[in-house]
Amino acid sequence: MAINRQELGVTLRRARARIQPEDVGLPSSARRRTPGLRREDVAQLAGISVDYVVRLEQGRGPVPSAQVLGALARALRLDQAGRDELFHLAGSAPPGPGTIALHVRPSVLRLIDRFSDLPTLVLSAKGDVLAWNAMALALHGDWTCLPPERRNLNRLRFLPDPADPCLSTVGDTESEQSGTAARSVAALRAAAARYPRDPGLGSLLADLRAGSAEFGALWEAGRAGGWSSHRKTVLHPALGPLTLDCDTLHVPDADQLVIVYSAAPGTPEAEALALLRVIGTQDVGQYQPTSTE
User: Fold this and answer.
1) Among candidate residues 191, 210, 215, the one with its CA nearest the CA of residue 101
2) Which of the four pLDDT bands, split at 50, 70 and 90, describes residue 241?
3) Whole-prediction pTM
4) For 195-223, b where at least 16 C-beta lie within 10 A, e where not — what string?
5) 3-state secondary structure of 165
6) pLDDT tens, position by position, 198-216
7) Which residues contact 252 (CB under 8 A, 6 or more apart)?
8) Cα 258 to Cα 251: distance, rounded to the nearest angstrom
9) DSSP state of 290
10) Helix then strand then coil, % of the chain, to nearest 5
């Protein structure tokens, strides 16, 4: 298939104009003159350069890879038909059966947006962070500052990179680390059984085996399983450690997980989440949760 550069550019510009910043977890500003998202917003969400977005919209530049097309479809909140159209216009075949779904349905995105007081993420079967709401941005930090290939919980856990300063809150306490690591590897082993020919999963497993002795040992233990609801301590840079209920909801037809963080009413963690809802990603200053003692 040949790329239709002109129509691809028109489609990208049209999709960008339909979306408001708050729809994708970005702060809105009264000073914005561009209807919808700016090119800078799309580049940030998709993990590509602004110049790349400009060239695509102007009908020039290189043929985008499948990874770039998938990232653009997620950033622009296209439904499956819109994603497939984007692939066809770029001269590529859309992802077929037997591959891990990296596209999040707009209905799921609307669902997580409704959790206005609860941090919520959408994960792929191999742990890619595909989408998040405004509260997750306030709790975890700015996921868009990571390139798409680093937006994977397993890479962040087993292959930490000092160049990832923007997510200072992703982590567990020492007592939680071993259990969470074992569950992560068990979920990946189960995914490998379901998607034996997925190239992205194969590449991830090769990198984890080569770069993490801990992952290798857990993988050789041979345990398979899925994520279950649990409690997790998030280390927030200003609010301190927040121990939250972490419930896992399965989107079966896409084989994706919706992760929702919450706290029981009246607890210090509930107070902290209420504060995050008010101030969002602004500086929380000297606030500390109320002591339980």
Assistant:
1) 191
2) confident
3) 0.78
4) beebebbeebbebbeeebeebeebbeeee
5) coil
6) 999 999 999 999 999 999 9
7) none
8) 7
9) P
10) 45, 10, 40
Question: Do residues 151 and 122 make contact, with C-beta atoms less than 8 angstroms apart?
Answer: no
One DSSP character per residue, 2-50 reads: ---HHHHHHHHHHHHHH--GGGGTPPP-TT--SSS--HHHHHHHHTS-H
Q: What's the rounded Cα separation, in Å, for the pair 42 and 12?
A: 10
CA distance 218 to 65: 33
**Tokens representing residue 266 in the block:** 């009246």
End-to-end CA distance of the chain: 66
Whether residue 268 has pLDDT greater than 80: yes
The residue type of 190 is A
Pairing of strands 230-236, 240-251: antiparallel
Which tokens belong to 217?
């040992």
- pLDDT tier, 179 (very low <50, low <70, confident <90, very high otherwise): confident
Contact present, 141 and 238 (Cβ < 8 Å): no
Q: Residue 31: its pLDDT value, please?
A: 65
Return the exposure string of 113-144: e unless at least 16 CB atoms fall within 10 Å of the residue's CB, then b.
bebeebbbbbbbbbbbbbbbbbbbbbbbbebb
How far apart CA 158 and CA 216 sit, in angstroms, is 10
Six-digit token pair at 110?
Answer: 């609307």
